[in-house]
Amino acid sequence: MIYLTQLIYIQEGQEEIFDEFESIAIPIIRNYNGELVLRIRPDKEALIEGTIELPYEIHLVLFQTQEDYENFTDDEERKRFLHLKEESIRETILIHGEVV
Fold this sequence. Notes:
- The protein has 100 residues and is of the alpha+beta class.
- The chain contains four helices and four strands, in the order βαββαααβ.
- It has a single domain (2-46, 53-64, 75-97), classed as 2-Layer Sandwich (Alpha-Beta Plaits).
């Protein structure tokens, strides 16, 4: 199993476009043995300490295998809507992990 953590930074004023992309992409995860385990919009008041900008959202996604994740990223329906992601997201930090 692999875990992917995404720190997502949004272009200012593009929240609705981001939400539109997520409404398409998130359900597709299940088609590839994946699960959105957490989707968090952190609040500045919840931050105890940090040296980077607080992201708009944090996602923790689980896939059974690396191949499942790669198949998700290659999904044709998801690819048709990547322009929404590109329009709304300024930067994403992707952290690969596994249970130890």
